[in-house]
Amino acid sequence: MTHRPARDAKTSAHGLAAPGPTADAAPVPADPAPQDPGTAAPAEPVLSVRDLSVRFRMRGGRDIAAVSDASFDLRPGECLALVGESGCGKSVLASALLGLLPRNATTAGQALAGGIDLLAADERTLARTVRGRRVGLVPQSPSAHLTPVRTVRSQLRETVRELTGARKTALRQATEAAAERAAFPADHLDRYPHQLSGGLAQRAATALALVGDAPLLLADEPTTGLDRDLVDRTVDELRRHADAGHALLMITHDLAAAERIADRVAVMYAGRVVELTDARAFFGTPGPRHPYARGLLDALPERAFAPIPGMPPELGDLPEGCAFAARCARTTSACGTLPALDAGTACHHPHEEAPRA
């Protein structure tokens, strides 16, 4: 497997100039898209990820395995929710797809979007062809992606002009329409990022990401800082983006938001995808098959409200076998071997039946 150093990101995730720098398991087969019997073959994936791995080289030569051998497809009109505890590698995966990793990161594998391998593309290709045009991003930390010395209107207007070609009166109207699409209030358009609350900054970043109607949208915690009504409005707008024939990868801690709009769910633990399944089966019956994934749902207040015992392992000191074994009630000696993702679950002892009431 060829390892490639990360590129420096000199442009924003929207494809425009930024004021400064931004911050070996067996191959997993492609996951099939849900398909009714007798229907035509599924559309070609908007994004096809194979064996994506990210390593960070720390001082002293220590390596951090942030993402390991992630594989999945994402097709037009589909929303995949990527969930898991903080620090499991979800946001690192998104940053790798856009070339926004720091200098001490190396990537391996392949991520094809529109015929371009996002992991191998140079910075010029990413800035001029990918970011904002093929792939849009709702960032996890919007204030870090908004230019601090320019108003929201100025940044939104520039993005609209560059990605749509609108000019003069049409540009002003399109700018205001873009703000409304993300529920960003018109009377705040002439404010600077430091004058915005966290929720307003999130909505500004969402508005910027939606402008180009990119075939693929990466939404990294898009509901951070929003109240429940705005959460629903935001995820519904993201769902409309997918329903228009685009693909959506939503990274979130908000399982209620994921249940509202996702077609499929991918669960990450300690840098690996441990479950990849249909959203209706995940949130309903039979429920998650991986013990960790089931634990995530059981920890919700509206469910069992039972926290998962223990703590996740350090990514720089992962065990040779299943990383969840130390926290799992189903652990046996078999768990000393790393489980492959088989039939959508990476577990030696997956749940086979629906949980009892």
TrEMBL record:
Renumbered residue ranges of the record's region Disordered: 1-46
Domain of life: Bacteria
UniProt keywords, alphabetically: ATP-binding, Cell membrane, Ion transport, Membrane, Nickel, Nickel transport, Nucleotide-binding, Translocase, Transport
CDD domains: ABC_NikE_OppD_transporters
Class of enzymatic activity (EC top level): translocase
Cell compartment(s), UniProt: Cell membrane
Name of the protein described by the UniProt record: Nickel import system ATP-binding protein NikD
Originating organism: Streptomyces stramineus
